[in-house]
Amino acid sequence: MNIGQAILLGVVEGLTEFLPVSSTGHLLIAEHLLGLPMKTQEQKDSLIGFTAVIQTGAILAAVLYFFKDIVSLITGFFGGLGSRAKRTGHDFRFALAVVVGSLPIALVGLALKDSIKRLDEHLISVAIGLIAFSAVLVIAERRASQDRPERSLTVLDGLLIGLAQCIALVPGVSRSGATISAGLLRGLDRVSATRLSFLLGIPALLGAGALGLKDATGNTTGTTATAVATVVSFVVGYASIAFLLRFVASHRISAFVPYRLLVGTAVVVAVVVN
């Protein structure tokens, strides 16, 4: 992988990580379009690891963007562990929801690691994820009551939305799309569901990045290319977060459905023709 390819993939990751369009799916499509080698298992593992690592760039952008919130949540969580009164506070309940919601993806991701790798090898799985999960985005918006503010968040919300995050292990589904949809179906308002989605993604994707680091610095990608792509995804990801939070304040996430269907259909056609 050369530096130009790394920069392009970093841009793709930063743009798509927080939008409900599947960053993993878009990276797989971009890697195929760039003609990156994926013949041997080592090359396949290297690209999968590369994808996991550069996602940490976008996630670190989320850490910076929500830094004050994260500090408050950490302080509230540990404060609640030692004080019964503080356990009724918003910060403790929100932090506990994030902790509990992060457990399913950790367990399922480790248990199905090899199966996920096999799914990532096939563009048709990306197309299926993009097209099929679009229906969920539409249903979530139609059934959303949005009558619950962030302060109403419970541990059960965190668990259920965390379980929904596991669906995004299928390429093309979209982690943010799955978690925001689950939040809407739980009655959360769109901005609160989106903020929770971002914060849930931090431990999940940092863990995935750490696991993929060894493979990502292999012969196919290389340390320099991986580092460059990660920095680019950080910069672009920060702008993407700011955009999406403003967007969801007045727009439905189902607005991304036509784009998902267009890309999914284009991939199906390309696979069939080739």
Question: How would you describe this structure to a colleague?
Answer:
The protein has 274 residues and is mostly helical. It has one domain (3-273). The chain is built from twelve helices and no strands. The model has no long low-confidence stretch (mean pLDDT 86).
> Looking at the chains present, what oligomeric state does this protein adopt?
single chain
Helix and strand succession? HHHHHHHHHHHH
- Can you summarize the main beta sheet? none
Proportion of beta-strand residues: under 5%
What structural category do the secondary elements indicate? mainly alpha
Low-confidence stretches: none
Number of strands: 0
Report how far the terminal alpha carbons are from each other: 24 Å
Helix content: over 70%
Total helical elements: 12
Number of domains: 1
Overall pLDDT, averaged? 86
What integer value in Å does the Rg equal? 18 Å
Principal-axis shape equals globular
